[in-house]
# Entry
Amino acid sequence: MSPETTTGHGDISTGVAGGDSNASATRITPGNALRPEDIALEVRTGLAKPTEDVAEYALRLGDDALVLAQRLGHWISRAPELEEDVALGNIALDQLGHARSFLSYAGGAWEKSEDDLAYFRREHEFRSVQLFEQPNGDFAVTIARQFIVSYYQFELYRRLTESSDETLAAIAAKAVKEVDYHRDHSAQWILRLAGGTDESRTRMIHGLRLMWPYVNELFQDDDLTQRLAEAGAAVAPSSLREDFDRLTGDVLQEAELEVPDVPAAPGGGRRGKHSEHLGYLLAEMQVLAREHPGASW
Amino acid sequence: MAAQNLQSVPAELSPEDEAAGQANFDRVMAEDSRIEPKDWMPAAYRKTLLRQISQHAHSEIIGMQPEANWISRAPSLKRKAILMAKVQDEAGHGLYLYSAAETLGQTRDKMMEDLIAGKARYSSIFNYPALTWADMGAIGWLVDGAAICNQVPLCRASYGPYGRAMVRICKEESFHQRQGFEILLELSNGTPEQKQMAQDAVNRWYAPALMMFGPPDDDSPNSKQSMAWNIKRFSNDELRSRFVGMMVEQVRVLGLTLPDDQVRFNEDTRKWEHGPLDWHEFQEVLAGRGPCNAQRLERRREAHDDGAWVREAAAAYAAKQQAKQSMTTKEYAA
# Structure
């Protein structure tokens, strides 16, 4: 299918069959999946071009997913059980896929590729919220972070499928199905760890207490989200809170856990204010690309 | 772990049943057909397979480490995604192979214990360090390439679960090799530094990859029996020679060279030949004195130990759930 015959964004959710055929040696994605390469192609050929506001918004969601993928990728070869090497690897891959899609789209506003955005921005230029960059800690900390993230992302993407921006809607439509599995994975582990041994319960409670200060930031509105929400392109973060509280509350109740009573951190990630952790994460992620600027890989 | 004898290990048989089992086994070997877990098999056949399949599983698991070393630094997001998927595939291969080995009567827990205790072997190749990004290319192209040469014939191995596991593994390995080739091709056509990086990686991985086929035929005491049992189909040297032939073709396309000026096609034997390999080094690495032996085992031990409380929690939770369920069933019954 040539770009001319694709009829707008509605079609990109079914993939651009004749897309970038050199995109990957391991292209075993099911035929209907929306690939980041499809979005990059749409952007390059001018079929999709985000407004400045939409690009800023896509950058936020892309940075969240990218930073989390980087964190989760560390578990591969280190997980408590081989099945978890596979599961956490899957979640990392899903997040990386979402990141690539959002960043490819965002870059369309500034003539930048996903890699330009991932590898050649500095810490204060990243727009991820602070929860995503929190260190893995032990398995319970990782699960606590994943539990919060997946319930938040599920509510977000579920609504974003109705975005007036068709590319955002298409990315969200693919992502929400995957994040639904992430929810299940993390909820199952919350139950197991809370209801397993005394040690696992103590660790689970500790993990949730460590991560909960960063929950508030997920639901903070600002001028950008307000403008986009009014235009029907994005979701006001504050509007997700009620469902998030209810659904995470149900899981915590079943696990006989309290919602942690801890002071909220002020956040600021959307404005480029990060915790101490992000710098190290980016230094490692970017080092090779920056040693060879302009090189192709 | 207590359950080291799974049900697939047969109980003591009467001499008549034993003779019938042996007759069936001999027939299967003669017909080049398949032995399945419930079939009688000679103890030595079981032992050989268990050793081979578990070593293969361990190799997949330890083999995740050199590549996992570059996931965080992959130089593009596409490469990062491919590498993550590849290392994840290796965990999957480990899982199938441990399952195949379990059908021979040993638990995965026991196999993992043996690995961590240093009692079990894994492919020596993974005791070499992955120093640059180009190593991701060289490992895919050379190491996975050699693995495929070894493993494709194993799809026809006489033991059913092993052969079937290998079919799927080989399909994925061929993707892995192609992605390795693609990494090297990109580097070779890139900047001078990138090309140099690619050549350096090929130089370092070439000889260890050739040694993956095992010692020369005249020094490989177990090969003959494995061939008689239809586990092994081709000799070490035969496979090595084929592999060299394929690499000679492909390295030209890459625009790189093999670090071996004695590679040639012998018109008389119709086989590819290569320069001498350092079998002393091979033995040293096998004996635990390789560059990364201690590091690899320690990392596996650490992951295993750090995860102990998680596995215990999962087991405890499952037991509690089961107890709850049987209680509910009783209540209903009453």
In short: Chain B touches chain A through 56 residues (CB under 8 Å). The first strand of chain B starts at residue 264 and ends at 266.
